[in-house]
Amino acid sequence: MTHIPWGRLQRALLGAATFAAGEDKIDYAQLAVSGAKPDHQLMKLLLLEDDTGTREDLERVLSSAGHVVDACTTGQDAIFLASSSEYAVLILDRMVPGIAGLPALKAIRAAGIRTPALFLTAMNGVEDRVEGLEAGADDYLAKPFAATELLARINALARRPPISDVAATIAVGDLVLDRIRRNVTRAGQRVDLQAQELKLLEYLMLHAGEVVTRTMLLENVWSFHFDPKTNIIESHMSRLRAKVDRGFGRELIQTVRGAGYRIDAG
């Protein structure tokens, strides 16, 4: 059973430079399993991290949890690997040489690859997180972080049903969203949406006729489990309405005063 020096892992994963490498050790395999059997599925993961120490420690943590890890140090390599092999989750650092993590993920998404992606980065401002999610990330974990939280988030992403297990298209009236090709049409006309606008519309359409609250949107569209105290929802909703409703006969996206938003199911 693999044992990892606690001091080194704390410095790499928790960013606590004051931790000294001592004799104490923590068994990350034990943290990730229940008894002798894993309590999560074992996965093939892609890891993009250019810092040697951090990358090696992350590989040990993930491997000790039973996962297979393909590690790379540049965005170019991440694009190549994601395009040539199947992974359960992509784990990407934003700040790497050459093509950085953000444009690398955009390229991966543009190639039609929908593998869940998690950003690991010290860029933890609200705007940084929004930018990452709009680029196509499914979750965002800011450094410093705990190894147990990383494993939990990876497991949560892997539990999401693959595209093949859900309806390929969603239709609300004359509005149609193709979930495979990630495009939208209304009355047969193509509607061009940014990545986050598409995720917002998809969530509304999956809950057609229901009121969705601000909290529901923050958690399920932006992966925020707190209120960033910005007009992020309002600004995205305004742009989405302009693209989806303007110029068409009936307005589908409605504001339910004091409650949230709803897309009219007709």
What does this 3D model show about the protein?
- This protein is elongated.
- It has two domains: 4-160, Rossmann fold, CATH 3.40.50.2300; 165-263, Arc Repressor Mutant, subunit A (Orthogonal Bundle), CATH 1.10.10.
- The strands form five sheets. A five-stranded parallel sheet has the order 6-5-7-8-9, sandwiched between helices. A four-stranded antiparallel sheet has the order 10-11-12-13, with helices on one face.
- A hairpin with a 2-residue loop joins strand 12 and strand 13 (189-191).
- The chain has helices spanning 6-14, 28-32, 52-64, 75-84, 101-110, 126-134, 147-159, 195-206, 214-220, 232-244; strands at 4-5, 25-26, 33-34, 37-38, 44-48, 68-72, 89-93, 117-121, 139-142, 169-172, 175-178, 183-186, 189-191, 253-256, 260-263.
- It is α/β, with parallel strands linked by helices and 266 residues long.
- The protein is built from ten helices and 15 strands.
- The chain is 38% helix and 21% strand.
- 30% of the residues are buried.
- Residues 1-39 have low confidence and may be disordered.
- The termini are far apart.
Question: Summed up, what is this model?
Answer:
With 266 residues, this protein is α/β, with parallel strands linked by helices. Helices cover 38% and strands 21% of the residues.
Q: Provide the helix percentage.
A: 25-40%
Could you list the spans in which at least 5 consecutive residues all have pLDDT below 50?
1-39
> Percent of residues in beta strands?
15-25%
Shape designation? elongated
Determine the structural class based on helices, strands and strand pairing.
alpha/beta
- Tally of distinct domains: 2
- Biggest sheet architecture: 5 strands, parallel
Strand order of the largest sheet: 6-5-7-8-9
CATH architecture of the largest domain: 3-Layer(aba) Sandwich
Rounded Rg: 20 Å
CATH level 3 topology of the largest domain: Rossmann fold
* Terminal-residue CA separation: 58 Å
CATH class of the largest domain: Alpha Beta
Mean pLDDT: 81
Q: Please trace the helix and strand order, writing H or E for each element.
A: EHEHEEEHEHEHEHEHEEEEHHHEE
- By CATH, the superfamily of the largest domain comes out as Response regulator
Q: Based on DSSP secondary structure assignment, what is the total number of beta strands?
A: 15
Tally of helical runs? 10
